[in-house]
Amino acid sequence: MCHGLGESVAGKGERFYADHTPTSLTAGRETTDRNAQTLAGVFRADVFGWDGAWDSMEDMILEKLIGKQYGWKPGARAEAIDNAAYVLLDEGHNAISGVPYIEQFQEVYGLDLESLEREEVAAAAARALADYTRTIDFSMTSRWDAFTEQNRFRKQPNADEDMLNYAASIESRIFNQEGRNLIRRPEGFTETAYEGFKTFFRVFDVESVGNCVRCHVPPTFSDYSLHGTGSGNFKTPPLRNLPRTDPYLHDGSAATLEEVLQGHMELAEAARAEQEGVDPLFGEIRISEADVEPLLQYLLMLDEVDPEDFRYYLINFE
User: Fold this and answer.
1) Model pTM?
2) I want to staple 248 with a disulfide (CB 3.0 to 4.6 A). Which of 97, 127, 254, 316 is the partner?
3) Do residues 29 and 174 share a domain?
C-alpha cells in the first residue's frame, strides 16, 4: 500500500496517505522511481506526479492502474485495461463483492458500463478514484493554525497576491505584536519553534533568511509548482504532517528533515553559483547551521491533531 493512513509498520510510526519506503513497491515486487507523496491536497495542483508528467489526475491514475505500479510489464497495456474493466464489470458474484460497480456507476455517473469499450471502463475507474482523491485534504488543525488564530495572522495569501507582499505582511505583523508583547503561542509551540517560524517566512535580510514561504505557500505549504533542483524539475511538496510522510524528496533520498535542510543549503550555494537547472529562488535562501534546529521545530508545529486537541491549543497558550 503506497498511500496508507494510520498504519504503523515495524515501529516506523503512523502514515498520512504515504508509505515507509524511499521509493514505493509495485504489485510486481519491484520499486518505482518515486517516493509516495501524501495524497492530501493533491487536487489543488494543475499538473500531477512529482515531475508534472500528467495534466489531469484521471490520466495519472489510469496510467498507474495499467502500468508498472500494478505489476504490468511494458507491452501489456491491453491486458491491463481488460483486467481493470473486468473488476468493474463483475456483477457481485465473488465472495468479497458488495453492490456491483455496474449499479453504482449507473447511479452516480449515469454510465452504462456494459455498453462501453474496455478502455472507457478503465477510464471510468480512474475517474471514480480521482473523485475520491479530491475528498482527501488537510484538516488545518495544527499548533500553527492555532497560533495564527490566536495572533490574527493571515493563514494564507490573498488571491493573486505576490508572495513577497504576503511575507512582508507577516513580518510586519510580527514586529507589531512583538513590540507590544502580544505574541501568544499554543502550548508546545516553543520559543525555538517561534524563531523557526520567523526564519521560514523571512525573505528580506542578510541572515536567517529561509525564503521558504516563496514555494511552500500556506495553508498547505506548497505552491504545487515545479522547481529545478539540478537533477530535474519537481513539484513542491506540502509540509503538513511531515512526521507521518518520511522519507522525503521525490526519490526518498532524505531520511530526515535535517537532511532536507542540509540539501537546501547546498542548493542555495548551487543557485548562487548559477548552476544549470537549479531554480534561482534557492539562491535567496541564506540559512546556517544555527537555523536548522529552529526550522525543524517550526515544521513540527504543522503536524495536525484531532479537533479536541486543536480546541485545547486554541485556548491554552503561553
Assistant:
1) 0.91
2) 254
3) no
